[in-house]
Design brief:
Radius of gyration: 14 Å
Strand content: 35-45%
Largest sheet: 4 strands, antiparallel
Number of domains: 1
CATH architecture: 2-Layer Sandwich
Strand order of the largest sheet: 2-5-1-6
Low-confidence stretches: none
Order of helices and strands: EHEEEEHE
Helix content: 10-25%
Shape: elongated
CATH class: Alpha Beta
CATH topology: Alpha-Beta Plaits
Number of strands: 6
Structural class: alpha+beta
Length: 102
């Protein structure tokens, strides 16, 4: 059986309009892949219920700790002031680590 190894899962939840920018950002910072989902929820700003705004996007990427830190810093500096965005990281165990990091 393959050995489990630890990576970081970076999760970014943001307004849908940021979708393409966020995909470019995580790829430019070193993510080899990503997963995107349309999500709904409620947080400090309440429920986003407008049809015009639509649902938020959730972007996940499995990366090294260094890449995770870089992505988090970039998301914070680019988007926190003017956009509804959250970003968080969790340690995850994976098989075939080479599929996710170089």
């Amino acid at each position: 059986m393959a050995l489990k190894q630890t990576l970081r899962k970076v999760t970014i939840i943001a307004e849908r309009v940021l979708r393409d920018d966020l995909i470019e950002l995580v790829k430019a910072k070193g993510a080899k892949g990503w997963t995107l989902a349309m999500v709904e929820g409620e947080g400090s700003r309440g429920i986003r219920a407008s049809e015009w705004e639509g649902r938020n996007v959730q972007l996940d990427a499995l990366v090294s700790p260094e890449v995770a830190d870089t992505i988090m810093e970039e998301v914070g500096s680019r988007y926190f002031k003017d956009w509804s965005v959250i970003v968080y990281v969790a340690d995850v165990e994976v098989l075939r680590k080479d599929k996710y990091v170089g």
